[in-house]
Design goal:
- The structure is a single chain.
- By secondary structure, the protein is of the alpha/beta class.
- The protein folds into two domains: 115 residues, Alpha-Beta Complex (Aspartate Aminotransferase, domain 1); 207 residues, Aspartate Aminotransferase, domain 2 (3-Layer(aba) Sandwich), CATH 3.40.640.10.
- Helix content is 39%, strand content 14%.
- The strands form three sheets. The chain has a seven-stranded mixed sheet with strand order 2-8-7-6-5-3-4, sandwiched between helices. Strands 9-12-11 form a three-stranded antiparallel sheet, with helices on one face.
- Helix 10 crosses helix 11.
- The protein is globular.
- The chain starts with a helix and ends with a helix.
- The site of pyridoxal-5'-phosphate (PLP) has 14 residues, from helix 4.
């Protein structure tokens, strides 16, 4: 079953609980909605992003504005970077975010897989350009600092997909802290619950940032300017927002550990759990029949697991997990 078929099945079934795609349910910050409402300037802007946007993101990351490029969502930043490094050996740990293969597919790039152990820890040994994502989708795991060290020691360059860096339960080390050969892909989709706004940033060494701006010019040309301005004006709320959303999703992950009778590695961030099942498609179908949509792990390269997005309130999640226990429990 591919992603399109899975979504078609979900649409047909119209389940009561949508725990499939990672569309955050927490309301966006009112300050951002207010800033968006005030926008009246819809002109073009520079391909690398508006100066005020680059400055705001640079100050949040402690880098120079010349190291920041606005992109139309994290996925666009990932596409730009995979294109920039298209002639190098690209590698990613399994299970993986399927978007990497969507991008590799249209650019006709190879993407090598790195095996992980039972705690979803990869062994970084091969030289190459790594595309990594921590906190991870689908597992929620975060790499300990020693693993990040192992990664930067072996990598020629790291494309660090940090879309969930603001949803962490016990700390997070970005490869950027340990090496300068790193480009971070950041997005406001998850932390501000605004995936439809399509706004993110690449934070990278200047030469790489310039290449990302070229990719912008060839694709969206100008990332949405009113959105950049609105987001730039509220970047200072990030620390508070980060604390709020992390706490909300941490609680849900903890409740999932109590309520869900399937085994999973406890997440250290993001808003997913990735429990083990006997057969992912059978569990998907049975859960759907019981009113819950989840995603088969084979979409992430692992048919012995399913992914549930923790994007409903606690009461609804309890009801959904009870249904999933009955649908997908039993011998594994
Ligand atoms: C791991 C990962 N990377 C990138 C993205 C893309 O996010 P966006 O393009 O909305 O910023 C997502 C979205 O779900 C994701 O889970």
């Amino acid at each position: 079953m591919d992603f399109a078929e899975v979504l078609m099945r979900i649409k047909e079934a119209s389940p009561k609980h949508r725990l499939d795609i990672g569309d955050p349910d927490l309301p966006p910050p009112p300050e951002l909605l207010e800033a968006l409402r005030k926008e009246e300037d819809f002109r073009y802007g520079p391909a690398e992003g508006l100066p005020e946007f680059r400055e705001a993101v640079a100050s949040a990351f402690g880098v120079e504005p010349g190291e920041v490029v606005a992109v139309a969502g994290g996925r666009h930043g990932l596409a730009a970077l995979m294109w920039v490094f298209r002639r190098r050996r690209l590698l990613t740990p399994t299970p993986y975010y399927p978007g990497y293969f969507d991008i590799a597919g249209v650019f006709e790039l190879g993407l090598g897989l790195v095996e992980t152990d039972g705690g979803w820890m990869p062994k970084f040994a091969e030289r190459g350009v790594y595309v990594v994502n921590y906190p991870n989708n689908p597992t929620g795991v975060v790499l300990p600092r020693e693993k990040v060290r192992e990664l930067v020691d072996v990598a020629e360059f790291v494309i660090s997909d940090e879309i969930y860096r603001d949803i962490v339960f016990n700390g997070f080390t970005s490869p950027m802290e340990l090496s300068s050969s790193v480009a971070v892909v950041y997005s406001f989709s998850k932390v501000f619950s605004v995936p439809g706004l399509r706004i993110g940033a690449v934070i990278a060494p200047r030469d790489v940032a310039r290449e990302v701006a070229k990719f912008n010019r060839a694709t969206v040309n100008v990332p949405p300017t009113p959105t950049q301005r609105a987001v730039a004006s509220v970047v200072d709320i990030l620390p508070r927002r980060r604390a709020e959303v992390s706490e909300a999703y941490r609680r849900r992950a903890e409740l999932a550990a109590g309520w869900l009778k399937l085994e999973f590695v406890r997440p250290g961030g993001a808003f997913y759990v990735f429990p083990r099942v006997a057969d992912d498609v059978r569990c998907f179908e049975a859960a759907l029949a019981a009113g819950v949509s989840l995603l088969p792990g084979s979409l992430y390269g692992d048919p012995r697991h399913v992914r549930l997005a923790l994007v409903e309130d606690e009461e609804r999640l309890r009801e959904a997990f009870t249904a999933v226990n009955a649908a997908c429990g039993g011998p594994r």
